[in-house]
Amino acid sequence: MSDSIRPLAVVTGASSGIGYELAKLCVENGHDLVIAADRPEIVEAAQAFRQMGANVDHLQVDLAEREGVDRLVELIGGRPVDVLLANAGHGLGHAFLDEAVSDWMHVLNTNVTGTLYLVHQVVGRMRERDKGRVLFTGSIAGLMPGSFQAVYNGTKAFIDSFSFALRNELKDTGITVTCLMPGATDTDFFERAGLSDTKVGTGKKDDPAMVAKVGFEAMMKGEGDVVAGMKNKMQAAMAAVTPQSQLAEMHRKMAEPGSGQS
């Protein structure tokens, strides 16, 4: 296959964790890449993917800002995007009223506003071609009230719901929309979110490579959603039949500061 006809994948949050593993799977399946993240490690990630044989454009940018998304769209240019993996996002621990306004607004703007703006730009062009695949990185956190992670869980509830709505709107097109719903995964998410001293932060976590593979395979099959890991599947099933007040109390025990200390 010549470089000129290799399909293009756009992956956000690709510097580490699930996003890095998703980008790696794209390369292994013959895609070139446009990758973005807000951390300098995106440079090393791009070099690794080039060594695997892909053509890679990378960008260190804050996708919480409209200007950041515009820069990413400009980097894509007029190239047709075959796969969009909207993975960028971050968390925030502690009680909502103890969080700085700038911090929780950045979570909202990264996880929701910036993601939707990028999807609107890229998937709009997919619709013109009537071809493409979209993968959102949602979370089982979106299925339960997130005491001491209230804003993060709320954003993931939005993304989980939005992905199903968009999928339905595009059901008569050649575009598929998939939502990957992982649980706690072994990435730097918990440290960045200030959750290192919590029960969920210190507990056992899933391998990001496994999580990414589950999501990638579901996307390639055109499935609507997939929960990664048997334990998480059980939690998702339980969340569907448990009162919201009880779920909030359960989440409190996992995410309250100091809950991970023995």
Order of helices and strands: EHEHEHEHEHEHHHEHH
What is the terminal-to-terminal distance?
Answer: 56 Å
Question: Which class of secondary structure composition applies to the elements?
Answer: alpha/beta
Q: How many E-type strands?
A: 7
Average pLDDT = 92
CATH topology (level 3) name: Rossmann fold
**Number of separate helices:** 10
How much is the radius of gyration in Å? Answer: 18 Å
Helix content: 40-55%
- Global morphology: globular
How many domain units? 1
**Share in β-strands:** 5-15%
Biggest β-sheet: count, sense, barrel?
Answer: 7 strands, parallel
State the strand order across the main sheet.
3-2-1-4-5-6-7
Oligomeric assembly: single chain
Uncertain spans, ≥5 residues at pLDDT below 50?
A: none
CATH class: Alpha Beta
CATH architecture: 3-Layer(aba) Sandwich
CATH level-4 homologous superfamily: NAD(P)-binding Rossmann-like Domain
Properties at a glance:
262 residues; Rossmann fold; alpha/beta; 7 strands; globular; 7-stranded parallel β-sheet
Fold topology:
Elements: E1 8-12, H1 17-28, E2 32-37, H2 42-51, E3 56-60, H3 66-76, E4 83-86, H4 101-129, E5 132-137, H5 150-169, E6 175-181, H6 189-192, H7 199-202, H8 208-221, E7 225-227, H9 230-239, H10 244-255
Parallel strand pairs: 1-2, 1-4, 2-3, 4-5, 5-6, 6-7
What do these coordinates show?
This protein is an alpha/beta fold. The protein has a single domain, classed as 3-Layer(aba) Sandwich (Rossmann fold). The protein is built from ten helices and seven strands. It has helices at residues 17-28, 42-51, 66-76, 101-129, 150-169, 189-192, 199-202, 208-221, 230-239, 244-255; strands at residues 8-12, 32-37, 56-60, 83-86, 132-137, 175-181, 225-227. The protein has a seven-stranded parallel sheet with strand order 3-2-1-4-5-6-7, sandwiched between helices. Helix 2 (42-51) links the parallel strand 2 and strand 3. Helix 1 packs across helix 8 and helix 4 runs parallel beside helix 5. 47% of the residues are buried. The model has no long low-confidence stretch (mean pLDDT 92).
